[in-house]
Amino acid sequence: MFQSIKRYIFNILHPVIAEVWQLHRITRENSADDIDRPYEITLERLDNLLKNALQNHYTFCSLDDITSMLTLHGQNTEYNTPQKIDLPHRRKLICLTLDDGYEDNFINAMPLFRKYKAPFCIYITKDYIEQGYKNYSFLNINQLLTLSADPLCTLGCHTCSHPRLNSLSIEEQQTEIADCKLWLEQTLGKPVKHLAYPYGDFSADTIHLVQALGFKTAVAAWGGGLRKGVAYSPFAIPRLLVTQNDIK
Ligand SMILES: [Zn+2]
User: Fold this and answer.
1) Span from the CA of 147 to the centroid of ligand 1 (angstroms)
2) Which structural domains are found in the chain, ordered by start?
3) Is residue 14 over pLDDT 60?
4) Which residues contact residue 70 at a Cβ distance below 8 angstroms, ignoring those fewer than 6 apart?
5) Contacts with 125 (C-beta within 8 Å, 6 or more apart), sequence order
């Protein structure tokens, strides 16, 4: 009882003012079964979510906007210092991110994001682009270059082989992250400043490494929305997983 009152007061004092959504595959057709697939939603659902967000007074924002929020009110500009956040303007924010680098992000989702003028970030797994994974189709280099030229799109790293980073040595983590960053920067011909941890797994060592490699942000795969007056590290930004039936 006491805990629920505490939570109630906390929620009033610290309302959610921004959400970073985590998406994966965006499909034309619903899957044949009724199982809620966490890594796949239909284009129709995404369209409805974006439409509802606008009706509910959300504004779509980029990862750089989230970075600005995290550093706007802090005295300390060290990126790894958690920064309390507040809204730069009145409307609540949604930042759209997509993990792994599926081709349907380009074919299905990009036209929809353009329709809503919604910025989006795709986190690229190097080995999936170069070697594939299971039966999925991934972005090719031409699609990556087209996305890179789109002002709405940010391309970020998602490591080389999609490991659980906190199960690796620091040297192995460095190879996974730095090689992906270098490859993507050479492919695109521009700096890459954003990272998503595969499975949302990382350690304190990972955060130091990511900062030393020159990233501006790194996102987790859990943690809910960003709340007013609560401090967050730019290298552990929480996200909400969007599935066919839920946002959690
Ligand atoms: Zn992933």
Assistant:
1) 19
2) 15-241 (3.20.20.370)
3) yes
4) 83, 85, 232, 234, 237
5) 100, 101, 133, 158, 159, 160, 161, 162, 180, 198
